[in-house]
Design a protein that fits this description.
Oligomer: single chain
Distance between the termini: 82 Å
Strand content: 25-35%
Order of helices and strands: HHEEEEEH
Number of domains: 1
Shape: elongated
Length: 101
């Protein structure tokens, strides 16, 4: 009985080792179809604006190069979120590089 248990554990360990070694062979990585945009990645940074009484969250879209901000207007009974217009950082930085030449 003990030898059957040991043999079963050895077979299980060999099967687990084989699946670990060959996992990339049997699985296919997910790839987007040609022409389909990949989802963006966002970086959010909290901050303050001089002269303002509400906090601001700056949202940076790292894939597309857009910077936006969101502020909470806490006045009154119903606080509201205020979105600021997004800025295209690629255009801003390409203009600065052209001006430096």
């Amino acid at each position: 009985m003990r030898s059957k248990t040991v043999l079963a554990l050895v077979v299980l360990n060999v099967a687990l080792l084989a699946s670990l070694c060959f996992r990339n062979t049997f699985t296919h990585s997910a790839q987007a179809a040609p022409g389909v945009a990949k989802p963006s990645e966002y970086l959010m940074i909290s901050g303050d604006i001089n002269g303002g009484n509400a906090g601001v969250i700056f949202v940076l879209d790292t894939r597309n190069g857009w910077l936006s901000a969101r502020s909470l207007n806490g006045q009154g009974n119903k606080p509201r979120l205020a979105d600021l217009k997004a800025i295209d950082l690629n255009r801003v930085f390409s203009g600065a590089a052209a001006a430096a030449r």
